[in-house]
């Protein structure tokens, strides 16, 4: 009964600001597309240049005024990289390590985060703070002592060694993301499922996890990308086979413009695929229906 | 819901199988290899074409002669120190022998990461260039064996020099004239000195000081003063790229023709000319100062890490790398200058002018002294350059200040 008049009042107030709103609306309507295109352009330009260098002949690139478009297309840099024998081992090492790190991190962090999210507020705060404490140390500072331990355990130049090293870095981060995800899933949903006869585990598998899919997707994506691009531990713990970022670093160090651009493009492709594959799960309205009920 | 459970179960199975595969697969392979033949782990920092020669023409000979497998790994000079440090601390040295940039040796010795090779000094062949041996000595002990001499050469853009009727500079006055001409004609400096104020700049400062007859370890002597006064005069006519020019970016600036004259290590020939197709970028051995011509002797040396599991084999490999046979392969196939006087080779036609430039520069190359206070000298040289050329401070006063810091470090 009380709501109706106040709504009317608000409508009246809004009307008094009409000219300003119209101006803003008009600006957004007119400017949205150009602004979006402008920022897209800014973001895509470096990627385009990278790809362009990898398929251009030196004459297009090594000049005072390089052209924006590709005039002398060549696949020779790609052919050289693909036939060098250095790509497949580095690519597969990076892919295996990033995928294994992601799967293990999700398997470990999901139950941990769920439990933390259901703890009383004060305890939860202390634990989350503790998790963040482990992220306070820069990688370059702790990589040496950790690598020393790993070398002692015969984990030098092994996939599993690198996966474990990446987990050190990734677990606190995705646990934090997932605590936030589970926190917003109402406990009442689980309780309703249990009233309907589901066990706690069943409620977790069938109700909580599907609702946490967007958070899990974000966590998986970040973990995969971070592990894919990781450099410090890869440098310490690789000997005979490099990861792909190390391979790019090698070409940066050797000053080869074209192989460097080609490797960097190759490094980027799986990132695009993973991001595209997981982005469909990232939806802000995922819980809409559940919370309404 | 059932589908979600099935998917999760599948993922778990995959994880377990996967962990099993990655965890166990490799070890078995290594274990089998170790029982069959001995493996010598060699660390080098080479370009792709250099690796090809090493893997097809050099290593197989050693493998056949000694019935071993040489596993060569790529490690950049700066990364090698951290890797060896980690392995050393873990007590599990996985690298048997290294070749390392002679500008980055002090830390290896200081941290106790390399073996004292004094007892093997007699295995240095008589024909090895005598100037290469002291590079590996620290406090009268030999830690590194000579392997590959190297020196910076001066790259120049022949098209632009011809366009403005310029000759390649032979002395400081001509260099200043070239810099002024480019600046005047194009409104922008086109001569670059490596000005990143780190080890890259130190090499060039060292050369300028020696060319003026100064001693970088003293820094406020007449020669050093002359060198810094000259640089102060030259600085306004240098390319804006100078501030970012190091051993890596210098190639880019030369290849993209934003710099027409600049010094860099000879690997730039492969990047700029062979790979980049910029045949108008030529090279010469360098210019002389008011007292003499002088270049810093760079290159690589051979070392054996402390705790090398195959030290006897590493010593054999060290001798093999210094042999006439290997040195001739490196000259012929890669255009590297030989470390011994009796190793001759015929380089490719296109490489000849660059090879000549390297050899010309090597004739006047001097080794940097191996002093434990080198970090102080390095900082003093660069700080003095910044203060004098960029902040416009007085040359003598600035050099006196930094010379005192070096004197203090000597004590």
Q: How do you describe this structure in short?
A:
The complex is a heterodimer of chains A (293) and B (411). Chain A is mainly alpha-helical. Chain A has helices spanning 3-16, 18-54, 58-61, 76-83, 87-117, 121-133, 139-152, 159-183, 187-195, 200-211, 213-229, 232-237, 244-254, 257-279, 288-292.
Biggest interface, chains and residue tallies = A-B, 47 and 48 residues
The portion of residues forming beta strands of chain B comes to 5-15%
Structural class of chain B: alpha/beta
Globular, elongated, flat, extended or rod-shaped: what is the shape of chain A? globular
What's the CATH superfamily of the largest domain in chain A, by name? Answer: MetI-like
Sequence of secondary-structure elements of chain B: HEHEHEHEEEEHHEHHHEHEEEHHHEHH
The rounded Rg of chain A comes to 25 Å
Report the average pLDDT across residues of chain A: 85
Main pleated sheet of chain B: 5 strands, mixed
Count of helical regions of chain B: 15
Task: Compute the separation of the termini of chain B in Å.
Answer: 76 Å
What structural class should be given to the helix and strand makeup of chain A?
mainly alpha
Question: What Rg of chain B is obtained from the alpha carbons, in whole angstroms?
Answer: 25 Å
Name of the top-level CATH class of the largest domain in chain A = Mainly Alpha
Shape of chain B: globular
Largest sheet of chain A: none
Give an account of the 3D structure:
The complex is a heterodimer of chains A (293) and B (411). Chain A has helices at 3-16, 18-54, 58-61, 76-83, 87-117, 121-133, 139-152, 159-183, 187-195, 200-211, 213-229, 232-237, 244-254, 257-279, 288-292. Chain A has 293 residues and is mainly alpha-helical. Chain A folds into two domains: 20-74, no CATH class; 83-292, MetI-like (MetI-like fold, Orthogonal Bundle). The radius of gyration of chain A is 25 Å and the shape is globular. Chain A starts with a helix and ends with a helix. Mean pLDDT of chain A is 85; it is low at 1-9 and 287-293. Chain B has 411 residues and is α/β, with parallel strands linked by helices. Chain B folds into two domains: 36-150 and 298-358, 3-Layer(aba) Sandwich (D-Maltodextrin-Binding Protein, domain 2), CATH 3.40.190; 153-296 and 371-410, 3-Layer(aba) Sandwich (D-Maltodextrin-Binding Protein, domain 2). Chain B contains 15 helices and 13 strands. Chain B has helices spanning 2-36, 48-66, 77-90, 106-110, 158-163, 172-186, 199-211, 222-234, 249-255, 267-275, 311-322, 324-334, 352-363, 374-390, 395-410; strands at residues 38-44, 68-74, 97-101, 137-138, 141-142, 145-150, 153-157, 191-192, 261-264, 281-284, 295-296, 298-303, 365-366. In chain B, the strands form four sheets. Chain B has a five-stranded mixed sheet. In chain B, a hairpin with a 2-residue loop joins strand 4 (137-138) and strand 5. In chain B, helix 9 (249-255) runs parallel beside helix 10. The longest helix of chain B is centred in the first third of the chain and has 35 residues, at 2-36. The chains are: A mainly alpha (293), B alpha/beta (411). Chains A and B meet through helix 3, helix 5, helix 7, helix 8 and helix 10 of A and helix 1, strand 2, helix 3, helix 9 and helix 10 of B.
């Amino acid at each position: 009964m009380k709501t109706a008049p106040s709504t009317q009042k608000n409508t009246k107030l809004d009307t008094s600001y009409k000219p300003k709103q119209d101006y803003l609306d008009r600006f957004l309507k007119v400017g949205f597309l150009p602004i979006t295109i402008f920022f897209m352009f800014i973001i895509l330009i470096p990627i385009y240049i990278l790809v362009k260098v990898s398929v251009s002949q030196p004459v297009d690139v090594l000049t005072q005024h390089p052209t924006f478009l590709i005039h002398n297309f060549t696949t020779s840099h790609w052919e050289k990289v693909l036939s060098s024998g250095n790509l497949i081992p580095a690519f597969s090492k990076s892919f295996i390590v990033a995928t294994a790190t992601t799967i293990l991190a999700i398997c470990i962090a999901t139950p941990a985060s769920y439990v933390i999210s259901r703890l009383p507020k004060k305890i939860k705060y202390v634990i989350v703070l503790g998790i963040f404490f482990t992220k306070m140390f820069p990688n370059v500072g702790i990589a040496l002592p950790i690598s020393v331990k790993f070398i002692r355990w015969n984990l030098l130049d092994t996939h599993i060694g690198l996966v474990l090293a990446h987990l050190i870095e990734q677990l606190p981060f995705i646990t934090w993301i997932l605590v936030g995800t589970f926190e917003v899933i109402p406990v009442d949903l689980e309780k309703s499922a249990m009233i309907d006869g589901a066990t706690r585990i069943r409620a977790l598998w069938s109700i909580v996890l599907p609702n946490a899919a967007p958070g899990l997707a974000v966590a998986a994506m970040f973990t995969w990308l971070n592990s894919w691009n990781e450099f410090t531990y890869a440098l310490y713990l690789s000997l005979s086979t490099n990861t792909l970022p190390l391979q790019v670093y090698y070409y940066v160090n050797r000053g080869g413009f074209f192989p460097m651009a080609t490797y960097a493009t190759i490094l980027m492709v799986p990132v695009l695929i993973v991001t595209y594959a997981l982005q469909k799960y990232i939806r802000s309205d995922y819980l809409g229906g559940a919370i309404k009920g | 819901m059932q589908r979600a459970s099935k998917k999760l179960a599948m993922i778990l199975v995959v994880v377990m199988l996967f962990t099993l595969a990655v965890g166990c697969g490799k070890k078995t392979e290594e274990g089998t290899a170790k029982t069959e033949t001995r493996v010598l782990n060699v660390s080098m920092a080479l370009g792709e074409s250099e690796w090809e020669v090493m893997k097809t023409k050099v290593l197989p000979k050693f493998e056949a002669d000694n019935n071993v497998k040489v596993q060569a790994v790529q490690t950049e000079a700066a990364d090698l120190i951290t890797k060896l440090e980690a392995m050393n601390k873990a007590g599990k040295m996985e690298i048997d022998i290294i070749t390392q940039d002679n500008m980055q040796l002090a830390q290896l010795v200081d941290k106790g990461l390399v073996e004292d090779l004094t007892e093997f000094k007699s295995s240095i062949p008589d024909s090895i260039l005598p100037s290469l041996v002291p590079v590996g000595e620290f406090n009268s002990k030999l830690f590194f064996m000579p392997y590959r001499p190297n020196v910076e050469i001066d790259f120049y853009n022949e098209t632009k020099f011809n366009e403005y009727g310029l000759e390649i500079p032979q002395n400081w006055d001509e260099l200043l004239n070239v810099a002024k001409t480019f600046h005047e004609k194009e409104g922008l400096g086109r001569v670059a000195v490596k000005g990143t104020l780190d080890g890259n700049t130190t090499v060039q400062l060292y050369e300028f000081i020696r060319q003026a007859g100064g001693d970088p370890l003293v820094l406020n002597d007449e020669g050093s003063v002359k060198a810094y006064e000259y640089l102060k005069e030259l600085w306004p006519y240098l390319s804006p790229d100078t501030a970012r020019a190091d051993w890596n970016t210098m190639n880019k600036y030369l290849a993209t023709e934003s710099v027409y004259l600049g010094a860099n290590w000879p690997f730039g020939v492969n990047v700029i000319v062979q790979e980049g197709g910029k045949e108008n970028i030529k090279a010469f051995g360098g210019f002389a100062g008011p007292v003499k011509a002088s270049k810093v002797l760079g290159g690589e040396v051979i070392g054996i890490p402390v705790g090398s599991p195959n030290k006897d084999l590493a010593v054999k490999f060290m001798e093999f790398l210094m042999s006439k046979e290997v040195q001739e392969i490196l000259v012929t196939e890669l255009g590297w200058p030989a470390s011994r006087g009796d190793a001759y080779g015929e380089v490719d036609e296109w490489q000849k002018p660059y090879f000549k430039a390297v050899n010309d520069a090597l004739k006047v190359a001097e080794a940097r002294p191996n002093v434990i206070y080198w970090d102080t000298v390095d900082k003093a040289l660069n700080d003095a350059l910044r203060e004098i050329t960029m902040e416009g401070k007085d040359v003598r006063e600035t050099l006196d200040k930094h010379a005192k810091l070096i004197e203090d470090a000597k004590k």
